[in-house]
Design a protein that fits this description.
This protein is of the alpha/beta class and 170 residues long. The protein has one domain (2-169): Leucine Aminopeptidase, subunit E, domain 1 (3-Layer(aba) Sandwich), CATH 3.40.220.10. Helices cover 39% and strands 19% of the residues. The chain is built from 5 helices and 6 strands; from the N terminus they run ββααββαβαβα. It has helices spanning 34-43, 45-52, 90-107, 127-144, 158-169, and strands at 6-10, 20-25, 62-66, 74-79, 112-115, 150-155. The protein has a 6-stranded mixed beta sheet with strand order 1-6-5-2-4-3, with helices on both faces. α3 runs parallel beside α4 (127-144) and α4 crosses α5 (158-169). The radius of gyration is 14 Å and the shape is globular. The two termini are 15 Å apart. Bound molecules: adenosine-5'-diphosphate.
Length: 170
């Protein structure tokens, strides 16, 4: 059952012992603020060296690197859309972030992957709509695929945790 393959944690994604964590990266893949900065800090400088070789990443697309000093073996870098009011395909681009990250996990036979709330910080995507897209796209993917075995949503506030809790319970 798909429900058993989805988990929710409130906390710091950089501390998780999972096969892969997802980074809310930007088009350059060269680091930034928010969770991106936290991941680069925790993974160490070799992450930036590998990212420099990737030639950036388009919005809605994803690329994988090693996890370096993280407990997580891999980092899937996905580039969420900046929210401009919803008229620039932001929902479709956010859905694509989840689809392409999960497709990489499937291809690499990653068992457990953890997602932060892509685009919901500096990029300003409305949190409830973002959570709905995250949960829907993930359930849709898990319904059709055996990998990843488990998806963990990682929130960074009690409010976001409750938003996901309600969606996952319904
Ligand atoms: P974006 O630029 O895609 O909006 P941000 O990093 O600004 O990315 O924020 C994305 C989400 O990640 C936000 O909801 C933010 O609260 C959350 N976040 C920030 N740091 C962490 C962390 N260490 N672990 C988990 N989530 C985090």
């Amino acid at each position: 059952m798909v429900k058993k393959r989805v988990e929710l944690i409130n906390g710091d994604i950089t501390s998780l012992d999972v096969d892969a964590i997802v980074n809310a990266a930007n088009n350059s893949l060269l680091g930034g603020g928010g969770v991106d900065g936290a991941i680069h800090n925790a993974a160490g400088p070799d992450l930036l060296t590998e990212c420099e070789s990737l030639n950036g990443c388009q919005t809605g697309q994803s690329k994988i690197t090693s996890g370096y000093r993280l407990k997580a073996k891999h980092i899937v870098h996905t580039v969420g859309p900046i929210w401009y009011g919803g008229y620039r395909d932001e929902p479709e681009l956010l859905a694509s972030c989840y689809q392409t990250s999960l497709a990489i996990a499937k291809e690499k036979k990653i068992k457990t992957i953890a997602f932060p709330g892509i685009s919901t910080g500096i990029y300003g995507f409305p949190k409830e709509l973002a959570a709905l897209i995250a949960v829907n796209e993930t359930k849709r993917f898990l319904n059709k695929n055996n990998y990843p075995e488990k998806v963990i949503f990682v929130t960074f506030s009690n409010e976001s945790y409750e938003t996901y809790r309600k969606l996952l319970d319904s």
